[in-house]
Amino acid sequence: MGSLSEQRDMSTSSLPGVIADSDDGLVFACILDGKGGAERIGWKELNAWRPEQGPLWVHLDSGTETTHRWLEETAELSEISRRILLEEETRPRVLTTDDGLLAILRGVNLNAGADPDDMVALRICTGSSRLITIRYRPVMTPRDMLSDLIDKRCGATSVPELFVRLTERLTERMNTVVVELDEALDEVEEDLEERDFSALRGQLTTVRQTAVGMRRYIGPQRDALARIHIERPPWLNREMEILLRESADKLQRYIEDLDAARDRAIVIRDEISNRLAEGMNHRMYALSLIAGIFLPLGFLTGLLGVNVGGMPGVQSTLGFWVTCIMLGLVLVGEVYLFRRLKWF
To answer: Where does the UniProt entry say this protein principally localizes (predicted)?
Structure first.
């Protein structure tokens, strides 16, 4: 899965100077201009923000006391909303509260040295004019979207659109990993004739672990996005709802692809096991034939080697050669018999 590593490197280096992680909890904050661009702000402007200034997007790191204090005092979120947003271990879900729409979504882990199936959580609280995202570990999707707003000036124009694009981007990144799983399985099937089964079994184990790990979160995330149209907030228009349902449909397709990849991995593993068993059976069969051929010969030589009186041919100079000829005839007779029985 080398291409995924390359994508991690590209994602990390695509925003030079745009985001500088700080220990004050504020990863970045910006005010949308309604035309696809945004203006970055700091804590001072953030604390003084009012809805009439424009749509606000705040991306925070949950690991600082400043973040906790801002959510409670300035953002004025309820205790239950803060607890949901700051939970360290959580599964994808969406719920509506007095503070707005709360969403816990997962994205593939594209951080350097990380496994894609170790999906990172992005906690979202959104309303009509403000979007708050919170991370525990770095997430590449917000960085890319900020680049669209600040550098390319082709980002979202409103908070609902920002939320939908964020969901779409998280979903689209999963496709890369799903495709790479299929390609990895194709490579394993092509390499079956190379007989390096130990390496292939290791690759299959990696594919299965990745598929199972991703499905663990993609399933609940699909259900969460599908639930939004049931409890659609008033600020989310029909068009945005349709786009969210499209993301849910994509997640359903990814689930089906992951299930198919897992089943293919099981089939390939069984094929490898069958080939290993077949090779072992062939070797054991050959050893059994050899043992069957030499068992009568061994019996005869053992019988003739008994040191008792009366053994025929002991006094004859031709006894040894007669014995060898007799053993040769027995060997030829055994080979003929085995061939008639189609044992080889």
So the answer is: membrane
